Amino acid sequence: MAQVLIVEDDPAIRGALIRGLGERGHAVDSAPTAMAGLEGAVGNRPDVVVLDLGLPDLDGATMLRMLRGVSRVPVIVATARDDEAEIVAVLDAGADDYLVKPFGAAQLDARIRAVLRRAVEAGPDPAVVVGDLRIDPRARQVTLSGETLELTPREFDLLHYLAAREGQVVSKRELVTEVWQQPYGGADKTVDVHLSWLRRKLGETAQESRYLHSVRGVGVRLSAPPATPTGQG
Predict the structure, then answer these.
(1) Which helix (H) or strand (E) holds 170?
(2) How does strand 169-171 pair with strand 128-130?
(3) Which of 39, 72, 115, 197 is the most buried (most CB within 10 A)?
(4) Which residues pair with 142 in a beta bridge?
(5) What is the DSSP letter of 164?
(6) CA distance 29 to 200
(7) Rounded to an integer, what distance in angstroms lies between the CA atom of residue 78 and that of residue 193?
(8) How many C-beta atoms lie closer than 10 Å to residue 70's C-beta?
(9) Region for residue 152 given its phi and psi (left: phi exceeds 0; alpha: psi -120 to 50; beta: otherwise)
């Protein structure tokens, strides 16, 4: 049994999916709007989200990008849109599967089992350790010298992305595309602001960097500070 969140504005379709999945042993919550769906996905932490694209407040693709900023929950997009370019764009934005309406509860149930099976086979990411910095993607927790750092979801994703590429210079274009899940459009300022916030929480500055090192005109590199020689404070 899985905990399923259905984000669908059509009450008839929503009701049919709730009944059909419930009969197959799933626990089902639902939301009629994108914002309610985001709240449910973040607050209740379902096992999988079934997402319609034609929502009344935000397009479902926009909700998907927002959700990917804070969660890696498997997402199955379920919509009447069947344009191939749009399907590819939504999958590239982070959807795990795509169903075109109309479809039955049995097919959706099979897709849910498939994406959850893939998630189990992939397994959780191991913790990333760089110097005294430890990043646990499963708990979304960061500690520095054993002390927990309070990071926003975006700060966590940014730090984890850089730490997983320890020693590599990562461009701001790549950060916007991979961390923010958005096309690059001169968003250097956004990256700079988040790096500044991260530095403050890591107890460093751009002038006196320990972990985050800016490479002028290229990007940023995360690496461990050099070890203090024995006998020196």
Answers:
(1) strand 169-171
(2) unpaired
(3) 115
(4) 135, 149
(5) T
(6) 39
(7) 36
(8) 16
(9) beta
- 150-159 pLDDT, tens digit each: 998 889 999 9
Point out the residues of the chain with pLDDT beneath 50: 230, 233
- CA 88 to each of CA 2, 73, 122: distance values in angstroms, whole numbers, following the listed order: 26, 19, 22
> Where are any strands of DSSP class E within 11-96?
27-31, 48-51, 75-79
CB distance 54 to 33 below 8 Å: no
Which of 194, 185, 204 is closest to 159 using CA atoms?
194
- pLDDT per residue as tens digits for the range 58-111: 988 889 988 887 788 899 998 888 788 888 888 888 899 999 888 989 999 999
Query: Looking at residue 228, what is its pLDDT?
Result: 57
Is beta strand 48-51 parallel, antiparallel or unpaired with respect to 3-7? parallel
Burial bucket for residue 214 (CB in 10 Å: 0-12, 13-18, 19+): middle
Tell me the one-letter amino acid at 222: L
Amino acid type, 93: A
The alpha carbon of 95 is separated from its chain's Cα centroid by a whole number of angstroms, namely 11
Tell me how far apart the alpha carbons of residues 193 and 125 are, in angstroms, rounded to a whole number.
Answer: 27
* pTM exceeds 0.85 for this model: no
